[in-house]
Every structure is written in structure tokens, then in C-alpha cells.
Amino acid sequence: MNRALHRWPGLLALVLVTVLALSGAALSVFPTAERIAAPQSVAGQSVADLAASVAATHPGLEEIRRSPSGTITAWWFDGGTPGSAVIDPATGADVGSAHPIAVERWLTNLHRSLFLGDAGRLVMAAGAAAMLVLTMTGAALVARRTGGWWRWFARLRGPLAGRLHVELARVAVLGLALSATTALWITASTFDLLPDGVARPPEPAAVSGQMDFPPERMVALQDVPVSALRKLSFPYAGDAQDVFTLSTDAGTGLIDQGTGELLSWADPTPWQRVSETIYMLHTGQGAATLGLILGLLALGVPVMGVTGTLIWVAGRRGRPRLRDNAPAARAQTVILVGSEGGSTWGFAATLAKALRDSGQAVHVAPMSAFDPARHPHTERYLILVATYGEGAAPASAKGFLDRLARMTKAPTAPLAVLGFGDRSFPAFCAFAEQVEETARVKGWASLLPMDTVDRKSPQDFARWGRVLGQALGLKLELDHQPARPEAHALTLISRRDYGEAVQAPTAILRFAVPKATPWARLTGRGFARFQAGDLLGVLPDGSAVPRFYSLASGSRDGFVEI
Known about the structure:
This protein has 16 helices and 18 strands. By secondary structure, the chain is an alpha+beta fold. The strands form four sheets. It has an eight-stranded antiparallel β-sheet. A five-stranded parallel β-sheet has the order 10-9-11-12-13, with helices on both faces. The chain has a three-stranded antiparallel β-sheet with strand order 14-15-18, with no helix packed on it. The longest helix has 31 residues, at 160-190.
């Protein structure tokens, strides 16, 4: 289930999450740049001092704002003409434009809504939801691959694309989950789905009716340092009933313009505090370093998108094209396949064709998709399964045993299990044996005793087919011609022979590691990374079945030795 939940949202939302990630990464730079460029406040400066200096240089002053980075901006009307600027808090003079640069505005609109307004916001929220699903399912898949949460950073093996995908996920998963979760919260807040609005102070019962009290003498402003200011709104010119509105980190208050007296106050609500924290975490406004880190992690998203697509393509490439695959709901015979490298799918295709030629409706599917409810008319289940490593489930059988163990009732149609492996290894068909044993414990009726195929032997497979045909009352001749696997030509560097004198001849062969382009390595077509103890399959001339030898060297040695 985790694999499917991870794969399809990732493929379907690849472009959307990539746009989200890249635009978010670009925007993460601006809070740091703003913080560096912002004129520094004077030590110990109060809001009263700041208001007085800005009002002196800007007639018609309407509002002073302080951003989380420390930038002070002022907004005013002078002779009916609006104006705004970034302010030097030490002098009250203009030092720059108050409006974001064009690139920042463009990126913000792209990131928030794809320039599509509210509809675009919902689309980008769907992208954030897809990213959250990807991070959660991806974390579960990483834990499964590495052998548990406690082995999160265990050394990886396998094709480059898969390793790069997991390496990036292991580092970025928490940051991406945080960005996605906070994005969904901000969207909900934007559409007023959360009670997180700014608390408004109660309207004062009465005001002095006086005007023009100097801001520098207002006690309510003298007690607030500039570092705590968010916004100071000035009363409307000529309106004696209007008041100053002061917003700080601690809350919002109303101040009498004629006396400087604090008339009313409202503390921020818990919802407001949570939303402000989430906004800070998502945008980096007020946490520039965290924003840069999250932006850097977001750059991994397009790389994971590409490598994830390559992994999916490689997996599809490992499966044969199954023609005439009957719908699951109408199948008489269901063939479930557990394969790591793809060869077991070839055997399944041969079996499915033979059964169809005998008049059967056959559905072939991975073991990971097992669900008896999808097969109401099936008369039998045939499981063809290989073993990965030391008895582990192969890629297309992940989760099968867990799903089977959770079932309260076994399927009514009987089961036959055929294991694929190599008898030279201790864990020969160990996973197939686990499937057979779990099915027996569950009370799943057996169509045939479990059987095995050694080293992809067409003869073993044909023998099992004849036994299956007898059980079904059919004549089954399984003439399987295994496809020759892709291989690399190795160049022999040296050969050392030992043991001839004691009639135990042994040869140590050393080969050069084949060169591969970065793209070939990324797409899984290069020579895989390896270590001592791994197996090297050697294809004899004219054969499609490799012979396996244990490696005596690793990739870091720079050569292949058996």
C-alpha cells in the first residue's frame, strides 16, 4: 500500500511539486537578503522615538511597519499623493523602496497560486498535500529498505538512481514534511477555515477628543522597544475620535491620540500564535536560517522526481507486456508474482499463455496488490515467487505476508506456491516457504504442495506445469524460453592459479570495472556498485541462465575479482 501511495501521487503530481519546491527554494533566499540589507535599529530605541523621527520627515504619516527581518517601512499621504519607503530607524529618512522587487513578487505569485487566484491556491494546496503523502509514505519505504527506523542511515546498495533517491529522502524528509504541512495550514487560514484572526481590542468607551499629542511623549509607545513592533497605525488626519493602533509581539492596543493613554488591549489568541509560528516556519520570515535550510532541502525534490521516475520505468521494464490479461473481477485463475529482478514475470507470462490456450481467463498481478475482494470468481491462486537476499520478500511482494496475516478468513479458492531460487545458497526459496507456511496457518486450502525451480530451470518449470495440469484436468506444456538478461563484457586483468599440485585447482580472476556514463549509471544500466560477498552472474555462451560466483572485491577496490 505504501509503495502504491508513494508512486502514483509522485508520478501524477511531479510537475506541480517540482514547481512548488523550486519556487519555494528561490523564495527562501529573500528573508536572508532582506535581513542583511535592513538598516539596523538604534540600541534601546523605543517605538515613541521611531514614530517621532519618521513623522518629522514624512508629513501625513499613516503607518509604520516592521518586518520579521527588521526592515522598517513607512506609508503616508502627502498632499493627496501616497508614498512609501524603507526607513532608516536612526534618522527616519528614506533608504529604499517599500515594495518587493519584481522577481520576488513573480515568484511569490507563482508559488502561492500559479497566477490563478483562489483556484490556483487550491491547486497548489493539492500539490502540498501530494508532497505530504510522498514524505510520509517515502519515510516508511526508506525504513523498510534499510531494515527499520533505527537503521535509517544504513549503507545502501543497488542501482545509482535508487540509492540517490533514498539518500536525498533520508536527509530531506523532515524538512519537506514541515513545508507541506505548514503550506496546508496557511491555505486553510487564507480561506478562513481556521479561527486564527488577529484579536481586536475592544472599542474604548470614550476618547479625549484632543489631537496632536507628541508621539515621543506617549508612555504607551515609550514602553515598547522597536524590536517588538509589528505595526503602528496613525489616526486619520483631522478626526479627533480616531486612535493610534499599536501591534506588537505581545498583542494589539488602542492609544488616545490626544493623551497618549492606552485605552484598550487584546492579547493574541492561541490560534493566532500558532498560525504566526507556522507562517514563520514556512516562509522563513523571522527565521531566515531555517528558511535557507528548508529551501536547500526543497532542491532535492526535482532530483527525487527524476530518480523516482527512473525507478518506476526500470520496474516496468523488468515486467513483460502481458497481453490479454483478464480483468481481476472475471478471472478464473489469478497468478501472483513476487520478483526482484524481473525474471519471474517471464515465467508468469509463459504460464498465463498456456492457461489461456487451455480456455482459462487469467489475471496476472504483483503479490503486493493481493486483495481477494477483487477476485470474486477466481477458482485458484498460483503464486510464483523468488527470494531476495537472505530470505526477504522481493520488490513486487512487499507487504503480502502482512496483508495475509491480517486477514480474518482465508480465500476460498485453493493455492499453489512455486518458489524460484538457487540451491547453492542457504536461503533457497526461503520467502516462498514463508508464504506457504503463513497460508497453511491461515487455513488456506492447498491446490498443490509447494514446489521449486532451481536456477530458473525451464525443465523444473515444465515438470511443475505438468503436475499443475493434472490437478486442473488440463494438458499444460510450459515451454519457457528465458530472455537473455542484459550483461556487461568484462576485461580480464590478471589470472592466478593455485592448488593443482594437490588436485584442488583454484583460479583467482581479476577484471576491470566496466566504464559507464553518468546517465547509464543513473538509469540502472551501468555496472552496479558491489562489495565483497555479493554475487556476480556469469552468462555462458548460448545460455540465458547465469552462473553465480561470490565476489572477493568491492567497488572501492577498483576491480572485480572472483
